[in-house]
Amino acid sequence: MPEEDPRIIELREMRAKSRQGGGKERIAAQHAKGKLTARERIEILLDSGTFQELEPFVTQGHDETSPEPSKIPGDGVVTGFGKIDGRTVYVYSQDFTVQGGSLGEMQSHKICAVMDLAVRNGSPIVGLIDSGGARIQEGVRSLGGYAEIFRRNALYSGIVPQISVIMGPCAGGASYSPALTDIIIMVEKTSYMFLTGPDVIRTVTHEEVDAETLGGAMTHHTVSGLAHLTAPTDQDALATVRSVLSYLPNNNVENPPVAGSGDPANRMDEELNHLVPIDPGVPYSMHNAIHRIVDSGSFMELLGGFARNAIVGLARMDGMPVGIVSQEPDMLGGSVDIDASDKICRFVRFCDAYNIPIITFVDSPGFIPGTDQEYRGIIRHGAKVLYAYAEASVPKISIVTRKAYGGAYVVMSSKYMGTDVCFAWPSAEIAVMGAEGAANILYRRQLKDAADPEAERARLVEEYRQRFCNPYAAANAGYIDDVIEPRETRLRVIAALAALRDKTVQALPRKHGNMPV
Fold first, then answer.
1. Distances (CA, A) of 409 to 245, 259, 273, 370, 483
2. Distances (CA, A) of 136 to 133, 172, 199
3. pLDDT in tens for each of the 517 residues of the chain?
4. Nearest C-alpha neighbor of 266 from the set 500, 495, 484, 482
5. Active site positions, annotated
6. Most buried of 4, 205, 207, 462, CB within 10 angstroms?
7. What span, in angstroms and rounded, lies between the C-alpha atoms of 483 and 474?
C-alpha cells in the first residue's frame, strides 16, 4: 500500500483544527451554560449529512494591538449551506468559543459571502447569533464589517427570507442586524439583545437592571416586540426555525410550499355559529375562531406576547400557507393602539414580500382614544397599517365577525383597501361608530326632551343597531361580497384562495412610496 500523501495528512489536520473552535475547555464552558457549539447547532438545524462548509481556513484579519493575528481557522464563525426538508438554506453560526464570537474583518467577510451566495441562488439565510460584539482590537475594521452586514440585510430584505436566532449575547450595534431581518427567535435565559448594557446604563442613568430584564427573550417578546418567537433551549429554537421555513418560499418570486393537511377543505365547525355572543359588549376568543377555521394544528402565532389586542401569525388553509391578521376581542375589546398598529403593519408587509395570502378577521370598535395615544402618534402608526394593506398585492380576504367601526374598519383590509373578497358573519356591525355613541349624537335633542331619557335611549340604540349596525347595509352597497354562516368560513375562504391563486397586479411605476414610519 503506497505511503499516504503528506499534503492529504496536512489537510486533515487543518480541518480537525478548524473544527475544534476555541478548544475543549471553552467548549465545555459553553455546554455548562446549557448552550450548544456553533457546529452542533448547524448539525441539528439542517437535514442530516447535508451541511457543506465554506471558507473554513479563514483566519483573523489585522489586529491593531498585536503584530501577529490569531491563527484559529474560521475566525469565530462557521458558514455554509445545507438542506432543511430537502430545500437549500444558507447559514452562518457564530462560535462563542473563539474570542467570544466577536466580529472582526474576516468574520464579516465570511458572513457577507454566504449572504451574497444565498441571494444569488434564491435561498433563505439563517443566522445563529452568539457573539460578544465588535472585536475591539480590530478597531474600525470591525465596525466596517458590521456595516457591510447591515447593508446586505437591508438590500436583501424582501428578496430571500432572513431569519435570526439569538442564542447568546447580541449587544451594541450588532443588534441592528437581527432587527433588519424577517423573523427573530430568541432562546430563553441564555440570549439577550440591547444597545447599551447594564453597566453603561448604571453609569449614565443610575438605573439598576440585569441583562435578562433589559434584553432577555421575554422582554423582547412581550415588551419591545422585537422577538417573534422564543424557545426554552437551543434545540427547540432550531426546530422552530425549521417550522417557520416550512411556511415560506425560498425567495420572493416563488410561491410558498403547499403541504398535505389531512384536514378536509369542506369541514364545517358548528361551534363557530355559537362563538360570537349576542350581547356586543361580551368578549370572546378570536384565537378560538382561528384555530377552528385553519388547518388543524397549523396556526403559528408570531409576537404572541406583544400587543395582545392584535393577532398575527402563519397558518395553512387546505395546505396553502396564509398570513392571519386579527384583533382579539378578549384584550382591550379588540381596540387598535400604537403597538398593535406596528405589529400588524410589519406582518402584512412581510406576507406581501413573500407571496403569502393575507386573511384578516375584523372585530374592533376602533383606535384607542386618549392623550397618550394621540401625543405618541396613533395617527401616524395607524397610517402604517393603511399603507401596508393598500400596497399589498397578494390575495387578500377579510371576514368581519362583529364590530367594524370607523377608521378601524376602513384600515383593516376593507374593500376600499383593495381587498379581493370580503365576507361578514351575521353578527357583523359595520358602521361609523357604535350604536350607543351614534344615538347620543343623532338623537341628542330627542333624548333631552324625552319623558324617560334612559328608556328612549335604549329604544333608539336598538333601532339604530337594527337599521345600520348589520352587515346587510354594507352588502347592499357592494362592500361586503357575502354574508355567510360562521361555520362556512373555512370552505368559503379556501375556495376564494384557490380562485385568487393566479392574481396579478400591475403596479404604477415609481422608485418607492413614502411610508409613514
1. 32, 33, 22, 19, 16
2. 9, 12, 18
3. 778 888 888 888 888 887 888 888 899 999 999 999 999 999 999 999 999 999 988 888 665 555 444 567 888 899 999 999 999 999 999 999 998 888 888 999 999 999 999 999 999 999 999 998 888 888 888 889 899 999 999 999 999 999 999 999 998 888 999 999 999 999 999 999 998 888 888 889 889 999 999 999 999 999 999 999 999 999 999 999 999 999 999 999 999 999 988 899 999 999 999 999 988 889 999 999 999 999 999 999 999 999 999 999 999 999 999 999 999 999 998 999 999 999 999 999 999 999 999 999 999 988 988 999 999 999 999 999 999 999 999 999 999 999 998 888 888 989 989 999 999 999 998 887 766 666 666 667 776 666 766 766 777 777 777 777 788 888 888 889 999 999 999 999 999 999 999 888 777 777 777 888 7
4. 495
5. 172-173, 407-408
6. 462
7. 10
| Backbone dihedral region for residue 78 (phi beyond 0: left; psi -120 to 50: alpha; all else: beta) | beta
**Single-letter amino acid, residue 175:** S
State the SS3 of 205-224.
Answer: HCCCCCHHHHHEHHHHHHCC
Which of 449, 447, 426 has the alpha carbon at shortest distance from 438? 447
Alpha helices, DSSP H, located in 33-175: 38-45, 105-120, 140-155
Per-residue cell: 181: 431581518
User: Is residue 177 exposed (0-12), middle (13-18) or buried (19+ Cβ within 10 Å)?
Assistant: buried
What span, in angstroms and rounded, lies between the C-alpha atoms of 296 and 293? 8
Rg (CA), the chain: 27
Distance CA 182, CA 162 (A): 5
